[in-house]
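TEACHING EXERCISE
Course module: macromolecular assemblies
Task: Read the component lines below, then compare them to the predicted structure of the full complex.
Student: A.B.
Group: 4
Components provided:
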Amino acid sequence: MPKQLLQGNQAIAMAAEVAGVKFFAGYPITPASEIIHEMVNKRHIKVLQMEDEIASINAVIGASLAGLKAMTATSGPGFSLMQESIGLAHIMEVPLVIVNVQRVGPSTGMPTLPAQGDIIQCKHGSHGDYFPIVFYPNSVAELYKYTVMAFNAAEESLSPVILLSDGYISHLYETIVPHRDFEVVKRTRPPLGTGNRHFTGLSHENSVVKTADADNYRRLIASLQEKQQLTAQRYNYYEYCACTKETDTLLISFGALSRVAYYFRNDFALYRPIRMYPLVEEIKTIAARYKRILMMEMNTGQYVHEIESILRREIQFIPILGGCIDLGEIKREIARVG
Amino acid sequence: MSTVERRGSSLYVKSLRLYFMNTDINYKRYLKLDLLPTPWCPGCGNGIVLKAVCQAFDELNLPKEGTVIVSGIGCAGRSAGFFDLDSVHTAHGRAIPVAEGIKYANDALTVVVLSGDGDLLGIGGNHLLHAIRRNTNITVVCYANEIYGMTGGQVSPLTPHNAKTVTSPLGNADFPIDVQSYFKNRNSYFARTTAFHLNHLKKSIVEALKFKGFSFVEARTMCIVNYGRRVGYKNSHEMLMHYKEFYKVSDDTEELSQNEIGILRHTAGL
Ligand SMILES: Cc1ncc(C[n+]2csc(CCOP(=O)(O)OP(=O)(O)O)c2C)c(N)n1
Ligand code: SF4
Ligand SMILES: [Mg+2]
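Instructor-supplied answer key:
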């Protein structure tokens, strides 16, 4: 397999094809548009440019129920618009993949620059309780790999899986070896038009709506939660680099920012969640080895609360707000909290 | 002939049996009868439209396999759950894009959207415009009760000017959408019909299903509980009688005036 120079977004599109995507619906937005540009040139993939992101996610839901592996790609503003229907896809158990290439928000923010401001939105953006599986790679090669994993996890869990990226890694060019020899999970549920099932956003049991049965609702949510946890266990992805020297500090980061963290590999141990949700349990045993935990992310503090609550420990937090990643600034901030 | 004699005649019995076999029994095969009753109020017109949809299916002998119903949210949106077919009950306003995704994923399917006027013209209005633009080959039946029924009777995009509703206590300041205007200069099918004109209602749906391209049926129907009684109707029968008096059938025309029902087929660009 020859090496190829690929942009992050190109790698996502290539990998989606490998994973068996047959339907794409989206709406143009920086820094995600290259994905739809790539998709329209692929044979055997139906691509719709919809009127907005709400239409996009809903067309993807329809296509997936009709039997095709389906995806959409967007950035923060579009991801916000999709939220209601993401909840719908969870309760209707529709497998699909949403790529969110994060840019600086809130609102239109700084459209061309990277940020990590949508972490909490992935988990809590829609109303009600649901349990998404979310991956966040940090290189072009990883975008390629985890796009395939996202599709597999979606099929196994029958749920919408989110692949996070950011304006930095999606626009990065790197040489990768685009393998095609992944195990690809096939669709098993029969497509629409073959039975008499009712897919509904109302609380339900076996295709029958139950709008006033709290016991049934609780069973439904519990079973969805269990299913998500069980599937996630098979996608237990994280990166841990023990320090080359003796250290009492673990530095946690992810996505674009974690690439800069490698600079500190001789000073601190490094931890990087790749499966952002549900949280990787191994962080507990890894963190137990270190007296001090440092964490940085490109927001004012989103994932740090998740880490704090799973570890039940205090964490030294360094917010590196979106728009620019500067090693000098990071060094100064680390010195300041240290 | 006395009534008793007539009832006893075999011709009468035969015709009765035929009537029930052909019109009153067969359409039920499209429904999950064990889920009845519907959640709709006594006197609601939704059941009439639902029945007409099934009768249209029956007339075309649509196979259950290969037919998919999609609904949005609202009283009308509860239609999907009663069909003995695969069906999807989407979020409020999103039935059309879900239906389009289904149709583009598998062109062999017959995809039918059943939803309310608020759902399809209000919150989902933009999707309707673009489904017309894309001319997606699906059929939409709009339960046009001129109100947001489910949420208690607020102004909808079809509420008449001056009508008093819970959100327009002094009368609706705005004018309703003239839905047919969306379909001009398009290759498209638009029908306006009512819950009173049963044959016309069924025919409008049958022709919509037969149409190759995007088809839309605006079926005027009664929400007695959250609309009719507040604008002066004693019961839904009075609303039906209003449809009877007010609307005149005018098929094969270019444009329907306010008091006309009919089928419009535009073939622009063909
Ligand atoms: C996003 C969202 N906003 C508001 C609602 C509340 N809601 C439920 S049904 C409905 C109106 C439905 O009106 P229409 O489509 O005309 O259906 P009808 O009940 O009249 O049949 C509204 C506003 C909702 N479910 N979702
Ligand atoms: S509120 Fe109106 S539309 Fe809804 S079920 Fe009752 S009568 Fe029908
Ligand atoms: Mg209505």
